[in-house]
Amino acid sequence: MSDCLFCKIIAGAIPSNPVYEDEWIYAFRDIAPQAPTHILVVPKAHIADVNGITEENSAIIAHIFTAIPQIARAAELTDGYRVVTNCGVHGCQSVQHLHFHILGGRQLSGEMG
Ligand code: AMP
User: Fold this and answer.
1) What pLDDT sits at residue 2?
2) Pocket test for ligand 1, best of 10, 30, 87 (most atoms within 8 A of CB)
3) Least enclosed by CB within 10 Å: which of 33, 41, 44, 103?
4) Is 16's C-beta closer than 6 angstroms to any atom of ligand 1?
5) Ligand 1 pocket, 85 CB below 6 A?
């Protein structure tokens, strides 16, 4: 199996707290939440980061962004939320498998960086 943490989570080799799954994507609770609701949405296919998005795999990204509003609705984020993806060293990416953070459940900071 791949050495990638999120590939292992997707495969069920490492436990996680799922909130959504379909053929292409998996969403689960962040282990160290930075907001009352903190969900990670990942493609099942291994894409390292935003730099790995191509014409060939971009349909998965579009699919993620159609699933995110459904996931947010199911999580009752009725007053809004933030979607974040970190990329590379300056972006503070710690897991090298593309993921989108959904953060909400309280008023978030206006600071973005
Ligand atoms: P990033 O720093 O943007 O790469 O985000 C990685 C995220 O993965 C962090 O918010 C971590 O808290 C989260 N994380 C790391 N290990 C796990 C795990 N085993 N289960 C759920 N979330 C995790």
Assistant:
1) 82
2) 30
3) 33
4) yes
5) no
Give first-to-last CA distance, the chain, whole Å. Answer: 35
Evaluate whether 26 touches 9 at the Cβ level (below 8 Å): yes
Asked if 62 and 31 touch (Cβ cutoff 8 Å), the reply is no
- State the 10-residue block means of pLDDT for the chain, 113 residues long: 92 98 98 98 98 98 98 98 98 98 98 91
> Is the pTM for the entire model greater than 0.90?
yes
Neighbouring residues of 57: CB distance < 8 A, sequence distance ≥ 6? 43, 45, 47
Task: Decide: 96 in ligand 1 pocket, CB within 6 A.
Answer: no
Q: How far apart are CA 51 and CA 11, in angstroms?
A: 24
